[in-house]
Design brief:
Oligomer: single chain
Number of domains: 1
Number of helices: 8
Distance between the termini: 59 Å
Number of strands: 5
Shape: globular
Largest sheet: 3 strands, mixed
Strand order of the largest sheet: 1-4-5
Strand content: 5-15%
Radius of gyration: 19 Å
Length: 261
């Protein structure tokens, strides 16, 4: 059986030591597309979108710092504890989505306090472009030929020639398309329910759907962490479980308090 061979250069442009990578373009581009979504939301709810430029900066810093720290200390702790300066070398790769979310949660809290915004309102609206960013990050992983799937003989398996000649599950695409479906679901919910209920239901829906998808897709991934445990779950799955549980509790709370203002 012939399989698609993927051998795309992860660099769009190289000028000496300066490199423009597909991953970086997709990562940053997702934030600006997300900014457009938020601009639509702010105008739809008659809020001043002038704060969005500042909000974007907070979110980007929170996402990068959080994702980098979690990658370093949860996926490759031995290496980075011995090479602390390397933590700053973000351009070499290594960002964890769980940490990105945690960093954004903290950044939003700081932003909400400074600009006197509702934290839960921000969380619910950021969930929508958050799903878009998650999808774009996985497309970036595809261009980097990283976060590989396990070997597979399925017709849609892909050979990542920059790594080896083994057909593998295209788990980057599995996740990216799952997150785009979640994006569509969140937008649909947002448009169909009242703004008050959207504030309650969207964060929990985001957590449950996104991290459940992540949990099950992990079964088709090669091991990411630089260590093993006796537990039956991967590091990515173990990091997903708390978010899933929080999301379930959040959704239950949202429906129980649906009629409350």
């Amino acid at each position: 059986m012939e399989h698609m061979i993927w051998n795309v250069n992860p660099n769009i442009l190289e000028l000496g030591a300066i490199q423009l990578r597909w991953y970086g373009l997709l990562f940053v581009g997702s934030f600006f597309l997300g900014l457009m979504i938020l601009n639509w939301i702010y105008k739809r709810e008659k809020k001043d979108p002038a704060v969005l430029d500042s909000l974007l900066i907070y979110i980007m810093i929170g996402a990068v710092v959080g994702s980098r720290l979690v990658h370093c200390f949860f996926y490759e702790p031995d290496y980075y504890l011995s090479h602390l300066v390397e933590i700053l070398a973000v351009w070499k790769g290594g960002l964890a989505s769980h940490g990105g979310l945690a960093g954004v949660l903290i950044a939003l809290y700081v932003f909400a306090k400074r600009y006197n915004e509702s934290y839960t309102w921000l969380l619910s609206r950021i969930a929508i472009p958050g799903a878009l960013t998650a999808a774009f990050v996985r497309f970036g992983n595809l261009f980097n030929s990283e976060i590989l799937g396990t070997p597979s003989e399925l017709p849609w398996a892909i050979i990542f020639q920059r790594v080896d000649m083994i057909p593998r599950h295209p788990v980057q695409l599995y996740e990216a398309f799952a997150y785009l479906i979640i994006l569509a679901l969140l937008v649909t919910i947002y448009r169909k329910v009242t703004p008050a209920f959207a504030t309650k239901i969207l964060p929990g829906t985001f957590l449950v759907t996104l991290f459940t998808a992540r949990f099950f897709i992990e079964y088709a991934k090669t091991r990411q962490a630089a260590y093993t445990t006796d537990l039956p779950f991967s590091t990515g799955q173990m990091l997903s479980i708390p978010f899933i549980l929080i999301g379930i509790i959040w959704v239950i709370w949202a429906f129980k308090t649906k009629e409350e203002k």
